Amino acid sequence: MSRIVSALPGRIRIRDRALRDRARLARIEEALAGFEGIDSLQPNPRAGSLVLHFDAARVEIEALEAAVDAAIDAELARPHAPRRRSLKMQVNRGAKLGMLGSLAASLALAAAGKKSWHAVTGGLFVACLGVHLAVHRRSILR
């Protein structure tokens, strides 16, 4: 499957979501660095792309495209371990579940007329909300 999105004399751009994995992208870089005629590689894991600069006078572009596709297909066919969530995201997931649970309990207790327990679960909700906001403080304050 061709992942080449742009091919000009001297330059090829490859894009695929799987290239956002830095380890995979590094292995593909290693594989492509050994190809004859490739001058430089510019990986961009955030965009999931890789730009190859090559000498168009020394290399036939169709042959290079076929070799690049084969190398990338071989790497992406290898199984990889799913990415583990960071501790920050695990904490945030717990905070969001805590907010949902405490909100439901707080509303149920308010409907049942249990004011003191309603206040306790409301406080738990606010604590979980504080954790959630602390995790996302950089994106909130932009």
Summarize the entry for a quick read.
This protein has 142 residues and is an alpha+beta fold. It contains five helices and four strands; from the N terminus they run ββαββαααα.
Radius of gyration: 25 Å
**CATH architecture classification of the largest domain:** 2-Layer Sandwich
Q: SSE string, helix = H, strand = E?
A: EEHEEHHHH
Q: In terms of per-residue confidence, which ranges show pLDDT below 50 for 5 or more consecutive residues?
A: none
Question: Major sheet: size, sense and barrel closure?
Answer: 4 strands, antiparallel
C-alpha termini separation:
40 Å
Q: What's the count of strands?
A: 4
SSE class: alpha+beta
The CATH first-level class of the largest domain comes to: Alpha Beta
Side-by-side strand order of the widest sheet: 1-2-4-3
Give the helix proportion (percent range). Answer: 55-70%
- Shape annotation: rod-shaped
Would you give the CATH topology of the largest domain? Alpha-Beta Plaits
Pfam families: HMA_2
Transmembrane segments: 94-111, 117-135
Keywords: Membrane, Transmembrane, Transmembrane helix
